Amino acid sequence: MHTDEVVTQSYSSYHKAIDVVGEGHSVSDVIAVSDGTVEIAVSTVTTNNQNARGTASYGNFVKIKHDDGTKSLYAHLKPGSVSVKAGERISKGDKIGTMGNTGNAHGVHLHFEVRNSDETRMNPTEYISKKQAEPVLENNKVDSNESKISSDVSTPALDNSSVKTVTSSSVNSNVGVERVTKKVSDSKTVISSNDIDNNNIESEFISNSDYKYGSIVDGLKSIGIDSSFNYRTLLAHENGIDDYHGTYNQNVYLLSLLKQGKLKKV
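Below the sequence we write its predicted structure tokens.
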């Protein structure tokens, strides 16, 4: 997966989930959106069956109960890709499988559901927008020599017509995400977004502390900075991400630095 994931079918009264594919209909790994315990992990389905009903319609799927009582479900996973088992404790950002076409599916994609503790299905885009403010650190710990990524990243509910996920991903990561733990320097000069817009003050950092939303692309674009994938790849490398794929958690990490004024310039 080398691009952001996109939603191809939104949540509705008749489709209480979102369907996710890679941009250009590419395939991504699927990650857990939050810490939790695996309730169900089905990995034995090898074929597509558009006559399947009930849980069989999910094909290979994983269902996770999260620490806040909510549950997430990831369906149509590729045969042989499910990497977790029922009862297993997992962390946000852990890979659980790969997008597939098993069960009642029409093409390779991820069917992603979020449920309350009583199994009532929720709008996943609203759930994801809340989870965007929770950066992923290796083993969910902060090393004593590292600065903790700010957890107060404010993100509104996502618009169904243009939502970017993972799940890896972003739902980030990618919906296939590699968890990021990077050192953040506090010793450099930070300049304001006006300084960047004018391009008249030299600094080692890019800042947009006034930005209140959840997109690194929009956050850069709003202060006149190149937001293309190629430039974000350069920014990511400069800020310690050597294998940037535009995943959900990688983008959240870069956005956190941008809002703190700690995003190193290329």
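The chain is about 15% helix and 20% strand.
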